[in-house]
Specification:
The chain has about 550 residues and is α/β, with parallel strands linked by helices. It has helices at about 20-30, 40-50, 55-65, 70-75, 105-110, 110-120, 155-165, 180-185, 190-195, 200-210, 220-230, 250-260, 260-275, 290-305, 325-335, 360-365, 370-375, 375-380, 415-420, 455-460, 480-495, 500-510, 520-535, 535-540, 545-550; strands at about 55, 85, 95-100, 125-130, 145, 150, 235-240, 275-285, 310-315, 355-360, 390-395, 405-410, 430-435, 445, 470-475. The termini are far apart.
């Protein structure tokens, strides 16, 4: 071909063609909803729920309907674990999926055996068996989910029988609904706050005097956070972080399954305090019963005129631990991949949709009403000396009575085991514990008398209390096996945005799996790089269990 010759112009459409039938199906699902960019994940859920997967034709149709590029829709859909993207020529997944938790508490309860037996016993043509990260049912390990039914103490025979009978629907536990909550004085405090009988300045001071802290992991003082957000010019927004994905954590699920309006009233009070124009309640997809409860009770608030229609907007996660990081959660609410933002600016200044944003954990808001009604001194006095407040401890592992334990801030793990959990399981001796879920590190029983709280002696040991998830190990457990489990979790959940975390978590798993003596120099070098250079807390904290394995558990190497 000479330089003056040209190839015939291809006048056909570029990229994937639009399927008219798929477009009609997507339009029917979306109905009259506004085709806003931030609703992309909600629309993906509509398609996934209706058809059991996301076909290439439906993704193409959704991109057309929302006037987005196909690449933009695909990158969001493929980021989240609970979306099944099926390309042309690929076989869609079976109609029924059984997810088995393989996180650390369920590992101790035999999750590996359960997965293997299910894969052998289930018909792969009709039932898909997959591993899943923490489902927030650690006290009922091993946990599973069949369709939309959450199952504790799962067994092979039980799950296969449910599959045979079609028992896959959501089971909603008994809880305190709107009428019952209102009958016991619910929303009276909100009314007083809105009427000015309880001034905002007094609210903030009460929160500060009580010592209420963020109970999702970081522990930032709640009252101070309200003050900071109020200092930036409006309009302002608020988000509620219900993405309780830290392995070993399940307290927020318990509160929302029992008494959801305490959190909702706390959220409305906090929103009033910072003059937020809307609340976005982000709830993890692993909790279908909680999602049902929240939809029902938010509608009840709107019907009663307590919340204007749309003021509390429920957003559904899609299976991504990283969205527990507040800025990644905001990205997800905006309909994007859950990639943590660089800081500064912090979200109090430049948050959701570029507005100053107050973000709170479910449990933090749950305590607001009690603190204001009973007084800051009441709440502060519930803690140990020097550790104000009471905490909800998610305790699982080798104890007789696991569950959410209300106990003082500053309690020790030994006290939790003996005074609140009935001691160790028969035949098991206390060996080690996670003080703060997967990222809080792993400490030996010899350090079982360290006060559990933010900072202090725990921080000096390179550990932290985080979301107050306590997992107990016994003399029958390997610290190395637990560490490998935790690092596999971090590898799977890394968002992939930054190299130190994306490559570092995988390399750590590889080094831990090495036969013979561990390359401790390599592990230590990698640990330092991840701590210094990762964008967010996932990569920075992922080496914690490796550090403690090498420091305190030489006998398990």
């Amino acid at each position: 071909m000479t330089m003056h010759e040209r190839r015939p112009r291809d006048r056909g459409p570029k990229g994937r063609g639009l399927d008219d039938a798929a477009l009609r199906e997507v339009q029917a699902l979306l109905g009259s909803r506004a085709r806003r960019r931030d609703l992309l994940i909600e629309f993906l859920h509509l398609i996934q729920d209706a058809y059991g997967h996301l076909s290439a034709a439906h993704l193409r149709a959704l991109a057309h309907e929302m006037r987005l590029s196909q690449a933009e829709v695909y990158e969001v859909a493929s980021f989240y674990d609970h979306f099944d993207v099926v390309k042309e020529g690929e076989t869609p997944p079976p109609a029924l999926t059984i997810r088995v938790c393989d996180s650390v508490s369920c590992m101790l309860a035999g999750a590996e055996t359960l997965v293997g037996a299910l894969q052998k016993g289930a018909d792969p043509a009709s039932v898909r068996v997959v591993r899943a990260p923490c489902m927030g049912r650690c006290a009922d390990a091993p946990a599973a989910r069949i369709g939309d039914r959450e199952v504790g103490h799962a067994t092979v025979d039980g799950l296969l029988e449910m599959a045979r009978k079609g028992e896959t629907e959501i089971v909603v536990p008994d809880y305190i609904g709107f009428a019952a909550y209102r009958a016991e004085g619910g929303y009276e405090l909100l009314g007083k706050v809105r009427a000015g009988e309880v001034p905002v300045e007094a609210l903030i001071k009460t929160m500060q005097d009580a010592g209420l802290r963020g109970l999702g992991g970081a522990g930032f003082p709640a009252g101070k956070k309200w003050e900071i957000v109020r200092s930036y010019p409006g309009p302002r927004l608020m988000s509620v972080n219900g993405d309780e994905g830290e392995p070993g954590t399940f307290k927020d699920r318990i509160y929302l399954e029992r008494d959801p309006h305490r959190t909702l009233e706390g959220a409305l009070i906090a929103a009033h305090a910072v003059e937020a124009e809307r609340i976005y309640f982000y709830m993890r997809d692993e909790y279908p019963a909680v999602l049902h409860i929240l939809r029902t009770e938010i509608a009840a608030l709107e019907a009663a005129g307590i919340a204007a229609p749309g003021f509390i907007e429920l957003r559904r996660g899609a299976g991504a631990y990283i969205c527990g990081e507040e800025s990644a959660m905001l990205e997800s609410i905006e309909g994007k991949r859950g990639l943590p933002r660089h800081r500064p600016p912090y979200i109090a200044e430049l948050g959701l949709f570029g507005r100053p944003t107050l973000n709170h954990n479910v449990e933090t808001l749950w305590w607001v009403r009690d603190i204001v009604e009973k007084g800051a001194a009441w709440f502060a006095a519930l803690g140990k000396p020097g550790h104000p407040g009471i905490r909800s401890w998610s305790v699982s592992g080798r104890v007789k009575n696991p569950g959410v334990k209300l106990a003082p801030a500053g309690i020790t793990v030994r006290e939790l085991i003996e005074e609140h959990c009935g001691g160790m399981q028969d035949g098991h001796t206390f060996k080690a514990y996670l003080p703060g879920g997967a990222s809080g590190g792993i400490l030996p029983a010899s350090m079982g008398d360290v006060p559990l709280d933010f900072g202090g002696e725990l921080a000096k040991l390179g550990a932290f209390v985080g979301s107050h998830a306590i997992v107990i190990f016994s003399d029958q457990d390997s610290a190395k096996a637990a560490t490998v489990n935790l690092l596999k979790f971090f590898k799977h959940e890394s968002c992939g945005q930054c190299t130190p975390c994306r490559e570092g978590t995988g390399k750590m798993v590889q080094l831990l799996h090495k036969d013979g003596a561990l390359d401790e120099t390599g592990l230590r070098d990698l640990e330092q790089v991840m701590r210094d250079a990762s964008i967010c807390g996932l990569g920075q904290a992922a080496p914690n269990p490796v550090n403690h394995l090498l420091t305190y558990f030489r006998e398990d190497l």
